[in-house]
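Students often ask why inverse folding is considered easier than folding. One informal answer: many sequences map to the same fold, so there is more than one right answer. In these notes we will look at a single instance of the problem. The structure comes first.
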């Protein structure tokens, strides 16, 4: 019995850590502080187009841009195969919804949340950002970006509570453990590479 209780406590520690680290860092699209850069995390493609969950994230980013609350959107996702390109699909979606192409920067090696946060800091030079994701993921995103050196606020977008939502919520229980290990050991991303001036150039471009 004691072993079971100890196991339960250990299982809850990563989630507790995330809640402590994120504190008051979660905001709505209406009250998030004005910030130069927003980071949108990939969430899958359907027939080459953003999945509904990813589209909701991109809609929130486009709205923040149109309202003048952000200046540049860093889209980070998976492009590990020629036939699968999250960042370009995200870019195309944003341009269709009013964000100028020159204000969008693509990270093609955002294979997971930790990689995206570390690359935002080390490759793209982002020190402060608004992070956009679903509610079940946003605390982990904020916690990991904080650990990676990106001062972050998180906006959790609404999502229909369908099978995908419940799967995402359940998956976070395991993902929280990996996130705690990433924060503790700070592994290098799967791909790091040279620094890229995309964000700096986008910020310097004309409105």
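Output (designed amino acids):
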């Amino acid at each position: 019995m004691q072993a079971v209780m100890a196991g339960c406590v250990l299982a809850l520690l990563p989630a507790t850590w995330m809640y402590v680290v994120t504190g008051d860092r979660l905001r709505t699209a209406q009250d998030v502080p004005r910030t130069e850069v927003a980071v949108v995390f990939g969430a899958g493609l359907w027939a080459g187009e953003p999945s509904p969950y990813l589209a909701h994230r991109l809609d929130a980013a486009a709205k923040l841009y149109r309202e003048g609350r952000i200046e540049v959107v860093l889209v980070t996702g998976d492009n590990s195969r020629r036939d699968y390109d999250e960042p370009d699909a995200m870019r195309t979606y944003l341009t269709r919804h009013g964000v100028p192409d020159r204000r969008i920067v693509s990270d093609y090696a955002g294979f997971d949340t930790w990689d995206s946060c570390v690359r935002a800091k080390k490759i793209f030079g982002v020190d402060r950002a608004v992070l956009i994701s679903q509610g079940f993921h946003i605390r982990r995103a904020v916690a990991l970006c904080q650990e990676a050196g990106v001062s972050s606020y998180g906006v959790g977008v609404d999502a229909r509570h369908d099978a995908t939502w419940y799967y995402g919520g359940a998956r976070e229980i395991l993902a929280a453990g990996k996130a705690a290990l990433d924060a503790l050991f700070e592994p290098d991303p799967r791909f790091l590479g040279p620094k890229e001036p995309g964000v700096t150039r986008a910020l310097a471009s004309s409105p």
